[in-house]
Amino acid sequence: MLAEFLQFLFSGITVGAIYALVALGFSIIYNASHVINFAQGEFVMIGGMATVFMMAGGLPLPAAMLVAVAIAVCAGLALERFAVGQSRGASVVTLIIITIGASIFLRGLASVVWDRNFHTLPSFSGDEPIRLAGATLTPQSLWVLGVTLVVAVLLFWFFTRTLMGKAMLATAHNRLAAQLVGINTRFVLMLSFGLAAALGAIGGILITPIAPTYFEGGVMLGLKGFSAAIVGGLGHGLGAIVGGLIVGIAEAMGAGYISSAYKDAFAFVLILLVLFFMPSGLFGVRGTERV
Amino acid sequence: MLLAVEALTSHYGRIQALKGIDLTIDRGELVALVGANGAGKTTLLRTISGVQPASGGKIMFDDHNITANPPDSRVRMGISQVPEGRQVFGPMSVEDNLRLGAFSRGGAGTAEMLEKCFAMFPVLEERRKQPAGTLSGGQQQMLAMSRALMAQPVLLLLDEPSMGLAPILVDEIFAAIAELKAAGTTIFLVEQNAFAALSIADRGYVLETGKIVLADKGEALLVNEKVKEAYLGI
Q: By the number of CB atoms within 10 A of the CB, which of A122, A273, B81, B109 ranks highest?
């Protein structure tokens, strides 16, 4: 009984950590531009696929991972530079549709440049499972949790302790005032797309040894990450992480105790519940500000 | 001459908000711009800061043509603006707002400027950890002015600093402006409160529907019949 519960919990937290990374990417871009970037899942796919093909090209795993993150960051910057940034003054809905277009383009590109097969990566440090109260935890799960934790701490430090991080938050709060104190808001936008792409790619690399990836593998991960961002409160850092874990755990529990056929539905049911009962998410601000 | 605006025009879509503005500001001067609602005062300041594009004419600052410069480069050159409606970063602390004011200097000189701002407005020091959005209107105005000063500007643009404030706070804000002028900062002050603005200004301009219609010394405008009738309510 307990062993079964723990097993579902472990797998929920692991996949939830990936959703959290994707959700952070959504939130960072949303803060900077109020755009929901539906190409966020493609960054995840690029992270996994690029690592696979860099390794096939002879690079050792750590180097392949670095190159893969760099490729995803380039894709993110290109998306801002050539698509979103070119449409300044367009409505947010138009910008969102542009990101959907970009996601289709990136999937097509991946299927042509790489291929249409499933690929996996070796675990970073072996496959010897760790036994814990009757349940098993793979070393790769620990990698996922550890790296996500480090990334979350680094992001927290960046946004609360550095002037550039605060400048990004300031741009989110009030773009006009940010420009008037000399913040280059165009650069902030580029930086957020680069950062979001890097987060997505890191998630993609971490999850590939557990769940094989292919050129459309980013679609579901992107949507789950989006659900996580909504559940936690779009634009809220801690909310993204908590939202990711909630979606991951709900999905694992639902698949384990109810039916694995509905695995993908739980995330979207959660979105509906949140939108009905607390539309701004668990951590969302309700806009009470004196003016 | 620190700032020279020549034949400046600006549009919102097809509507022309500025119809050829000419004005100059010398180093150390306090120049006031008065005019009714919708005359284009805020548009003029925004165009000088670069957050509203100019559609014609030019802006010379310190002998450089800055008409096409992006806003962040103008801040680095020394043009700071206190925008209409204060526009503080509401959820961020008072101190973070001030630190961001020094962003254009990469944070250089933050400590000493913080001290100067706290000396001028002690209430900001008491509230330094509080979210800026929870300050009263007057305190937010003090914060917005201090944030602009953190950049150590050569030219300070003030947009309606007295708007919506209680009379006692208006006095305090205007005393601070006089203090800044005495310390040598060049100030361009936009106000609906024409009497208060012209009283402390060296020179003044009157703006009507996107055009400068009068330009004179501050005290001369105060006794000008047209100004009295239209803006001073006497």
A: B81
